[in-house]
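Today's session is about reading a structure prediction critically. Students often jump straight to the picture, but the first step is always the sequence itself: look for stretches that repeat, for charged clusters, for runs of hydrophobic residues. Only then move on to the predicted structure, which in these notes is written as discrete structure tokens rather than atom positions. Here is the chain we will use throughout the hour.
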Amino acid sequence: MDSWLLWNLTGGVHGGLHVTDVTNASRTMLMDLHTLDWDDELLSFFGIPRAMLPAIRPSADPTGYGSTIASGPLRGEVALTADLGDQHAATVGQVCFAPGQAKNTYGTGNFLLLNTGTQAVPSRHGLLTTVGYRFGDDDPVYALEGSIAVTGSAVQWLRDQLGIISSASESETLAATVPDSGGIYFVPAFSGLFAPYWRSDARGAIVGLSRFHTSAHLARAALEAICYQSRDVAEAMRLDSGVALDVLRVDGGVTANDLCMQMQADILGVPVSRPVVAETTALGAAYAAGLAVGFWKDAGELATHWREDRRFEPQWSPDRRESGYAGWRKAVERTLNWVDVDPGRR
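Below is the predicted structure for this chain, in token form.
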């Protein structure tokens, strides 16, 4: 999509540039993460002619995308200097520029990225190794990413399919009427489980139910599921990188739910930091463009512009945290092997 937009914005059939950036190119799984160029072996394997692919440029580059927009009301007025993938831009918007810094975006699904510096860390625990960003001629910065399929969309399911809430925001109000989930777990594996499990045979389950439980307990379990799935990814990142989180920066629609963010701090055991500007993807693209034209001097200056709205400190005891997580892992086990899947396609 980015190369199509850039091609049209720089002239289309009248001389448009066919380019992309390293973050979007890495998402095709056809780019060599070390050379930052298309991998000839993979292109040959999939039968993809190199000539049909866009040239790969840095994420922030004053010359990589044409001097100005070539058509429309902004013609000749606005320079195109930055291009990043969605979650990579959010990482820049959260100014996660130091190795070990991480951000988690909460939408219909979750995307947690950990900056690993200029070293591409191969994942052995179900994560994706990706280019995080590259500014100009600087060395690329790499990241580990974990994608979670169903988080905010589980709350939508409570609203649209079960009808126990009338709006997503009501999930917080309903869940807050009970002190905990009463020992039930909701694993929303509606389309299988993504990182770090990658199990297409899994299906959703609500376990531990008794006649004691109410819709409030289910709403609270749905919020906890968002947080437990994020911990699954954070644990995999720790095993891959050897780095334990000391704080998690968050963004996205679900972060407006204070109860869920408090749960996230409790379940992770580290502070959760919510920024003033929640739309960090757009902010990150703007940051990269500003760096390319010299509006900001460097990434260090950008870091001074980041502002925290609220910090959620962990309140659970270590025993409660580990007991709760053990129950979650047990619940996940109940969702596996539910659908027969061809082992060769799993």
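Discussion point for the tutorial: The chain has a mean pLDDT of 94.
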